[in-house]
Specification:
homodimer, alpha+beta, 60s Ribosomal Protein L30, Chain: A, Phosphoribosyl-aminoimidazole Synthetase, Chain A, domain 2, 2 domains, 7-stranded mixed β-sheet, 7 helices, 28% strand, globular
Chain lengths: 303, 303
């Protein structure tokens, strides 16, 4: 199974099945689902952590819990929303030590509260073998920004592509366990820029791959200038850093007449313009020393 | 790890951490969480299906998908609520056939729509080995009945204990793959009976164990009359049937002055009075041929 193929299949199936459901404002295929209940609009997101895959064996359980909550929160942030409540499904190996299970549960509750979405419910299941990897499935209910959810499909030719913070080498450096989901930054961008904020996504799989997702959803071409990419000092060259993923920074577009902020005032997180949106075939290209490389597939497929 | 011990630990932790969060109306420990958003009150529930554990290997994927959605819907029903939207996290073994993955995804979408909660988002992850069991985590957002959510804690001494449908032998007979979550029945009970509907739970783990959950939450004793239990013809004796679980029928209490309906008019599902609520030590007892047996632990721990 290729996860990307399955996700495309799911998106197409959902579009067909949900065509006559105007209450499903955004279905599968963006950072979150956007739905209407009798009380208002909600953002809904689910994401999983698999041992050995998203966290190495032996990762401290407090850090596992932090990452499980934070990466789902990051998807709520990618729409400019506010996380409100979390649910956790934990599938744990047979004979999992009671002390570890309690430590993990306590950490999930603590990080849920920390990130603004207390864990209000969950389920525990036991896997058949002691050697099975644990699976944590975190679902978060969020509320959209008053501006409305910031979708992947909102970019237009002429927009400037920007990124928060710095990118590259997140997994090997351990930063993937410690990142701050950009909830405050996203809300500030949505409040300050309003409709001048075009499209937004969080960088989970890689700058190239995630930029291409904006490009496809918005039906534009994206060019990224390698020298302008804000890289971590340990990240290596731009062409490698954009494929690393797990940065959980915001990648977003601004309308051409919009002044580009240097940083988010409340947090000091820097904002860097790194490229542009153009008319043309959907995809993401890296411009580096006069060469133009297709980076639409550069990144993890699909964690 | 004993799942029940962990769930108790989680409930106690959540109570402590959420003591100053009046927006979390009901946290871990009931059929669903009940939370307040800016737009109104929501029911939130997550539940998991583990291969080999909740479904046998080789179960048709359409039936796996049905059960995964239906058992979470059943928890929304247990509060008298209406399921609205579903999210699915699927962790699938390495080299899982693409055709099977698509069949499973299509079935989840179809059953979500069928049960009133379209799948609006999800995540796919790949497990490290081909022999790993798949894990499906279904989260559902529901809306409460205008009466308010029907909690486990609403029973009072003097209430009559009732059950919908028939019970026993659900897993071996295959009925655990085909049950109808009692959404319509629960909504009808809540509409018709209002505050005369005391407490409610769905029978997932066993009549004894689930009755004891009402008893503990409501601080009462429950007595069940064995001869009055509506058993499936293949269920064997009452003392065995109440430990089988996986019935997904509603177990609920009615105030003493409330006439007991024979059936739910819209669906024809029978309703049977099977026991009573009394003051006393929390627990569930089975009365059978003059013997009184503690059945508080009779059932699965904890699927």
């Amino acid at each position: 199974m290729r996860e990307t193929d399955l996700l495309h299949h799911v998106r197409d199936t959902a579009r067909r099945l949900l065509a006559d459901r105007p209450d499903v404002i955004v279905g599968p295929g963006d950072d979150c689902a956007v739905v209407r209940t009798s009380g208002g609009v909600l953002l809904l997101k689910t994401d999983q952590i698999v041992e050995h895959r998203h966290v190495a064996a032996g990762t401290p359980l407090d850090m596992v819990a932090r990452k499980a909550i934070a990466r789902t929160v990051s998807d709520i942030a990618a729409m400019g929303g506010t996380p409100r409540y979390a649910l956790v499904g934990a599938a744990l190996p047979r004979h999992y030590p009671q002390a570890d299970a309690q430590l993990l549960a306590d950490a999930l509750h603590r990080w849920g509260l920390h990130f603004g979405c207390p864990v209000v419910g969950g389920d525990v299941a036991t896997l058949p073998r002691e050697t099975d990897p644990f699976v944590l499935c975190v679902s978060i209910v969020g509320e959209p920004h008053p501006r409305g959810p910031v979708l992947r499909s909102g970019a237009k030719p002429g927009d400037t592509l920007c990124v928060t913070g710095a990118i590259g080498n997140s997994f090997r450096s351990g930063r993937h366990l410690m990142f701050e989901p950009r909830v405050a930054e996203a809300a500030w961008l949505a409040s300050t820029l309003g409709d001048a904020l075009g499209a937004m996504i969080d960088i989970s799989d890689g700058v190239g791959l995630d930029a291409a997702r904006i490009a496809r959803a918005s039906n534009i071409t994206i060019e990224i200038d390698a020298p302008r990419l804000p890289l971590h000092t340990d990240a290596g060259p731009a062409s490698k850093a954009i494929a690393d993923g797990e940065d959980y920074e915001l990648l977003f577009t601004l309308r051409p007449d919009c002044p580009i902020p240097d940083a988010c005032p409340a947090t000091g997180t820097p904002i860097t313009p790194i490229g542009r949106c153009l008319p043309g075939e959907p995809g993401a290209w890296l411009l580096d020393l006069g060469t133009r490389t297709d980076v639409s597939s550069l990144g993890w497929d699909h964690r």
